[in-house]
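Hi L.,

As promised, T9SS C-terminal target domain-containing protein:
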Amino acid sequence: MLLLRYSSTPPPFNYLTMKHLHTLLIGAAAYCSPLLLSAQTAPVLTTFPVGSTTVSVSALTTGLQVPWELVWGPDNFIWMTERGGRISRVNPATGQVTPLVTLSDVVTSSEGGLLGMALHPDLLTTSPYVYVVYNYNDAGGQYREKLVRLTYSNGTLSSPLVLLGNISAVSTHSGSRLLILPDRTLLMTTGDAQNRPAAQDRASLNGKILRLNLDGTIPADNPVAGNASYTYGHRNPQGLVRAGNGKIYSSEHGQDAEDEVNIIEPNRNYGWPTVEGLCNLPAEQPFCTQNNVREPIFTWAPTVGCAGITYYDHPAIPGWRNSLLALALKGNKLTQIPLDATGSTAGTGAFTLTGFGRLRSICISPQGKVYVGTSNRDGRATPGANDDQILVLENRLFTSTAKANTSQLSLWPNPARTSLTLELPAPVTNTTPADIHDAVGRVVRTAQFNAGQRTTQVGLQGLRPGLYSIRSNNVVQRFVVE
């Protein structure tokens, strides 16, 4: 029986000890937000082992309506869509839900409604944009799907701009996960909308993974000029993540026999409707050979109703490092899929989160906590009194004094008190700034690497306890001040 709860980097004032409480009460008014006690004390609902690590499961917040997407934001809050049309920010330290907007033209029907979301990488600075996918009725009353960009300002989302609309839809098979890539293009999954031939039709937007620029235009280097499709031959992909190896992985609902995890490669055919799962049947093999079909790296048989997927590589839970974590709508399951050096699978592990029902959405905090959204009010389960909820899977014994590494910037200790050491992989040739931002994006401290340096220190005296980010060398790293 398993459940996980873990919030990697809490917002300001939330990673606290009692000795900080008096200071925070005095300073809280300056932040114009209520001071709430840390969710680290939330009751443990269950635990389970991952290797030698005990993972605790607790509830961050309850009473939700199908939290379809969870995204860890640059403000160190969880951004959430609910299928009925509400978009909110969730405080990972307190569970407080702050609505940003309820979209009035969202139309829910069976699996349809407000679905995927992605945040612009520069959300808190130069590009305050949030991208969402949802179902609606067009002027003729036909059920459709569209990609919309919203603008974030003063704690609200407004100014909807349709980037891609009039996508054929029915009440099921909508796909709708979003992922922004380092080249500032956007991937969007679409389902076949119960029209199987559409998946192999490059002129159709259905049964595809689409690639767009962030303004909705088609990138010049897409596989087919003037065509939004990046890959095709999909039934209903509902998970999408870029792993630490740079590869893109998608989880996809099969029909009866096999759900899939695929490595997404441009211009590849993923087989549907002729192929489900591996190319292992006589009727499938000639099609696969002739049509550039990319086989999945992992399948579930029978199907589990795979939903959200993410990549985990944090020392908080060592047994999950370099693994995909995939949720299932059937059987209360979370599946760990370890990756090998080639990016393929290196075994598997399954964890049953008994008592929590259908598992839909997932995100990870910078400190290694896993947040899971349930989906028990979607019409296919019997909801409990607390449904729907966000669960936290975490190692409550974990504290980090080691380096936090990316390929471009390392920092330690984390959490920190009086100073922070920054290290680049090589000396810089020119003076390189390093700015510390608080959780609302304000620059609160500035340091720099001088020419010829690869290491520098930043003094933290005077900073209130809480979550901060440091930006240098085009990299953002998050850390906690105790």
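Helices lie at 18-27, 285-290.

Thanks again for sending the construct details.

K.
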